[in-house]
Design brief:
The complex is a heterodimer of chains A (about 300) and B (about 280).
Chain A: E1 4-15, E2 18-29, E3 33-37, H1 44-51, E4 59-64, E5 67-68, H2 72-75, E6 78-81, H3 93-103, H4 108-121, H5 137-148, E7 155-159, H6 167-182, E8 186-190, H7 194-200, E9 203-208, E10 211-217, E11 225-232, H8 236-242, E12 246-250, E13 255-259, H9 267-274, E14 278-286, H10 289-297
Parallel strand pairs in A: 3-8, 3-9, 6-7, 7-8
Antiparallel strand pairs in A: 1-2, 1-4, 4-5, 9-10, 11-13, 11-14, 12-13
Helix pairs in contact in A: 3-4
Chain B: H1 2-17, H2 20-45, H3 51-82, H4 87-94, H5 96-101, H6 107-141, H7 148-170, H8 175-202, H9 205-217, H10 220-231, H11 234-239, H12 253-275
Classes of the chains: A alpha/beta (about 300), B mainly alpha (about 280).
């Protein structure tokens, strides 16, 4: 992968006896929308805090934008929206953005223009002079998102950006993430709203008990394809042959199997017919990320 | 540097926006009105013409001025502990700190910026109260305590000392723990100061050492004793009369100790805060 914005190798964090992150190894290329999935308590937020230099790791190595963790030059190109964004709520929306801009070393008319553009983008232009204390949960989340983008970052960390948003707010955030991708900005999305992730992410990594357990490309392929086949006269040879396309889940009838890639789908009936089998029905089932999530996490996963 | 200034400005902005400044100003003005009325009637009472009466008059005015400054000192110290007690621990607990600390700034700028902002507020408060007391006295009877150039900076140093304790504690402890610790230290110093005085009167060296150790652990009360001693009129100092009689005065080395205390405590706090998980 050329020019990764995030690269970690065996990143680890221990809080006393508790191992919050056991082994985090991942690589996020420039401009990718990356989903970081896992149940509550899996170590998502701790991982994110390590990448932002807020929590020192106990072991392993990591680079963000080519620099060691917590490097100020790298942080100058990073935006961050924490979960449950809170800020000094006695500020107005405009003042809040101004403070964050100044902390990034911005100022003058360039900052003021950026503030107006962002307020417009997150649909808070009419609320810019109101105290943040009076904002609704959704408005807070949106001003938080604007805050994360005040300095035109190259990498944005979003921790549960759509929690507390109504459907219109979610669409707006989804739209903004798409815009960021189009501008070549990498987005690290921490979420357990799987529908959102499915709609926005190029790639996801599942994390369980502080370990990365599975990686999945979403951009041009569905999460996983399952095929159901009604075949007359299937024998051991049939199953052995089908195994070249994927994995058999159930010998049926009907036969259920997963297929590795979409391109293999037309080959299945061709192979069956060529072998002289009588194919009555073939049905593809695209499983949702949610089903996959439950499968990856396993049955021992309890609500976090 | 600019981050430090931004944080300091934010701290001042917060004091204005959350009406802390208005509340402090109102309390200060109420205190000054009370002091002014009391001092006015006290002055009416002291109208003697002969030499002995004039000496007595002066002593009474000087004593009452010191009482006013003592109240000023107490109010300032309380404010210096309470005002910043929640600023770091509170922002860490609510998660506000995560958004600030992930900016491309040194963590020390956050602590020093807050320290600077609160120092301006506390010293402003001290200036309002002490300036008010001295103005009332000067306007009413035309005299001022001696050595104000020594006494007032010592009061400032005491305020900065407790401000530093409160800010430093906030880098490490929760708000309540921090408050208990800061007031505990102040109480210890207060007790230590008086233990030292009483030990001197009773000639008990062991008790005196206990008092000195307490003053070293927290030199705040020593600063007030030095300030009060230096602002007493020479006559009161000579005969040991007045509200603050001193059997023993802290050595000037205590001032150096207090200054070093601020610097070292702040350095430890910065070091700890730079490494702690947020």
């Amino acid at each position: 992968m050329p020019d990764p914005v995030i690269e970690t190798r065996g990143l680890r964090k221990r809080f006393g006896p508790k191992l919050a992150v056991a082994e985090l190894t991942l690589s996020v290329p420039r401009g990718e929308v990356f989903g970081f999935l896992g149940p509550n308590g899996a170590g998502k937020t701790t991982s994110l805090k390590m990448l932002l230099g807020l929590v020192p790791p106990s072991g392993g190595s990591a680079r963000v934008l080519g620099a060691p963790l917590g490097d100020r030059k790298a942080l100058a190109r990073v935006g961050f929206l924490p979960e449950h964004f809170r800020f000094h709520d006695w500020l107005t929306g405009r003042e809040l953005l101004r403070v964050h801009g100044r902390l990034h070393g911005l100022g003058g008319s360039a900052l003021e223009q950026k503030i107006e553009a962002l307020l417009q983008r997150v649909d808070l232009l009419d609320a810019g002079e109101r105290n943040v204390r009076e904002y609704s949960k959704g408005m807070l989340q949106r001003i938080g998102l604007a805050q994360a983008l005040i300095h035109d970052p190259d990498l944005v960390f979003l921790d549960e950006p759509t929690s507390g948003l109504d459907p219109i707010g979610r669409l707006l955030v989804r739209d903004m993430i798409r815009d960021l991708r189009n501008q070549g900005v990498a987005v690290f999305l921490n979420s357990h709203l799987l529908g959102e992730v499915e709609a926005t992410c190029d790639r996801v990594v599942f994390i369980k008990q502080g370990r990365t357990v599975r990686e999945l490309q979403l951009a041009d392929a569905p999460a996983s394809i399952e095929v159901e086949l009604r075949v007359e006269g299937a024998d051991d040879g049939t199953f052995d042959g089908l195994a070249q396309f994927g994995a058999i889940l159930d010998s049926g009838p009907p036969i259920r199997m997963t297929v590795r890639e979409e391109a293999a789908l037309p080959d299945i009936p061709a192979w069956l017919v060529g072998r002289g089998a009588r194919l009555y029905e073939m049905r593809t089932v695209r499983r949702s990320l949610e089903a996959l999530f439950l499968e990856v996490m396993g049955e021992d996963q309890r609500p976090g | 540097m600019s981050a430090l200034i931004t944080i300091a400005r934010l701290t001042l902005h917060e004091a204005v926006r959350r009406r802390i400044l208005v509340a402090a100003a109102l309390c200060g003005v109420a205190f000054l009105i009370l002091f002014g009325i009391a001092f006015h009637f006290l002055a009416l009472d002291q109208q003697g013409r002969n030499f002995a009466e004039i000496i007595q008059r002066r002593a009474v005015f000087a004593a009452f001025t010191l009482v006013g400054l003592y109240a000023t000192n107490f109010l300032t110290v309380m404010t210096a502990v309470l005002l910043p007690v929640d600023t770091l621990s509170g922002e860490i607990a609510t998660g506000v700190m995560q958004t600030i600390a992930s900016k491309p700034i040194r963590r020390s700028s956050i602590v020093l910026g807050k320290w600077l902002g609160f120092a301006i507020l506390i010293l402003g408060y001290l200036a309002l109260l002490a300036g008010g007391v001295l103005t009332i006295v000067k306007l009413r009877v035309g005299i001022l305590p001696p050595n104000l150039h020594i006494g007032l900076p010592l009061m400032m140093l005491e305020a900065l000392l407790l401000l530093t304790v409160s800010i430093a504690g906030g880098t490490r402890f929760s708000t309540v723990t921090n408050g208990v610790l800061a007031f505990g230290l102040y109480g210890l110093a207060f007790l230590g100061g008086w233990v030292e005085q009483i030990a001197t009167f009773t000639n008990n060296a062991t008790v005196s050492t206990v008092g000195t150790v307490a003053s070293l652990i927290m030199p705040s009360e020593s600063m007030w004793q030095l300030a009060a001693y230096s602002m007493q009129p020479p006559i009161a100092r000579a005969i040991g009369a007045g509200p603050f009689m001193f059997g023993v005065v802290p050595t000037p080395a205590m001032v150096v100790w207090a200054g070093g205390y601020i610097v070292v405590l702040l350095a430890i706090a910065l070091r700890y805060f730079s490494k702690r998980p947020l």
